Amino acid sequence: MSQYAQQHQAINLSQGFPDFDGDDFLKQRVSHYINSGLNQYAPMTGLVQLREQIANKIDSQYGLEVCPDRQVTVTSGATEALFAAIMAVVKTGDEVVVLDPAYDSYDPAIRLAGGKAVHVALNDDFSINFDALRQACNARTRLLIINSPHNPSGATISYEDMLSLQSLVLEFDTLLLSDEVYEHIIFDGADHQSALRFSELAQRSFVVSSFGKTFHTTGWKVGYCVAPAELSTEFRKVHQYLTFSTSTPMQAAIADTLAEKPELWQNLPRFYQQKRDHLQQALAPSRLKLLPCRGTYFQVVDYSAISDLNELDFAKWLTREVKVAVIPISVFYQQPREQKLARLCFAKNESTLTQAAERLCQL
Ligand code: PMP
Ligand code: GLN
After folding, report:
1. How far apart are the first and last CA of the chain?
2. Which entry of 49, 97, 194, 303 is 20 to 30 Å from 66 by CA?
3. Does 296 sit in the ligand 2 pocket, CB within 6 Å?
4. Which SS3 state, helix, strand or coil, does residue 72 take?
């Protein structure tokens, strides 16, 4: 869709990435480290100072002590961490439960590992359908994948639902892969319910995050995985031969930023809530129906008052004719859906959002 947006000179609210830059401090540190010669391989598990900063952040945020040496692994983006976690534990014939709509990288990784992805649709409000989830679990279920705050819906998993997930994981003796790349982008004063807050879950989970989201640097591809030592050992066997290690100057700069500028991630809820509110207010006069957005930088809209086109055709039409590119929600489902929803990325300057909303209000 980004290519299509470019081709039609549309405002690109499709692919999720900011149209503004990361903080100057971060960029200056990267160039400092490049110019001072930090340009060779980092250790396989990540620079020690970065792993320590990640462990500190987890302790301060989720009240869990993790060992930087044995439990934290720096990866080349969350995408690599998701892939390595799946490869590490899913064997031929294993089943993995995926909740649809789901981020697009889970299913191919499961299939490449020889596993079978069992897709369970979320409820219409994007909460977990526990009856359906329970029915999908059995003795072959090796892993359950969750994502909160959730791409594409902007929904979050509640404390109560995390407790129910914990019971289910224990009952079926499965592992959990918790995709928490939007952990710091959560609104209206809510707390992110990380799997790391739940002791039984933390003992059975790979928790994945991304500095691309946290520091507005999606092109740097630096993320990490936190898991118990035994799971991290298996994870690292895959990571070692997948990428081996991650960009050294980027890691050093991110470690400094976590240590010296914690306000950059601490202010993210307020920073993105302003953008969400700006977009919502600008779209209020439109005929789009806005669904609740509790986290992430995605706003889902229902366009059924405007068009009968299916989601893919609508997204393309909107890009070509209205010059605003969005993502159809149907692409995140395995089964075709009768719904008229589109995802708008609001990780954009307010002027970009205003201009896009003006166009959408004319429909
Ligand atoms: N999971 C989700 C839900 C995402 O939205 C993204 C960002 N595209 C990723 C994982 C991948 O993150 P990264 O860019 O760090 O690989
Ligand atoms: N996560 C981003 C999105 O959902 C983009 C990542 C990608 O394009 N693969 O739009």
Report:
1. 21
2. 97
3. no
4. strand
Atom of ligand 1 nearest to the CA of 81: 16
Looking at this predicted complex, what is its ipTM? 0.97
Residue 151: CB within 6 Å of ligand 2? yes
Averaged pLDDT, groups of 10, the chain, 363 residues long: 97 97 98 98 98 98 98 98 98 98 98 98 98 98 98 98 98 98 98 98 98 98 98 98 98 98 97 98 98 98 98 98 98 94 98 98 97
Compute, in angstroms, the gap from residue 151 CA to the centroid of ligand 2.
9
Contact 78, 286 (CB under 8 A): no
Superfamily of chain region 2-21+266-360: Aspartate Aminotransferase, domain 1 (3.90.1150.10)
CA 285–ligand 2 middle distance (angstroms) = 29
Determine contact, residues 152/106, Cβ cutoff 8 Å.
no
Q: Using a 6 Å cutoff on CB, does residue 103 contact ligand 1?
A: yes
| Residue nearest ligand 2's atom 5 by CA | 16
Q: How many helices (H) and strands (E) does the chain have?
A: 16, 13
Which ranges in the chain are annotated with CATH 3.40.640.10? 24-260
Which atom from ligand 1 is nearest to the alpha carbon of 103?
3
What residues does CATH 3.90.1150.10 cover in the chain?
Answer: 2-21+266-360
Which of these CATH numbers, 1.10.1040.10, 3.40.640.10, 3.30.930.10, 3.40.50.720, describes 24-260? 3.40.640.10
For ligand 2, atom 3: residue with the closest CA = 16
| Complete DSSP assignment for 290-351 | EPP--BSSEEEEE-TTT--S-HHHHHHHIIIII-EE-EEGGGG-SS-----EEEEE--S-HH
d(CA 349, CA 158): 30
For residue 330, the CA-to-ligand 2 centroid distance in Å is 15
Of ligand 1's atoms, which has the minimum distance to the CA of residue 218? 14
Angle between helices 350-361 and 268-283 (to 10 degrees): 20
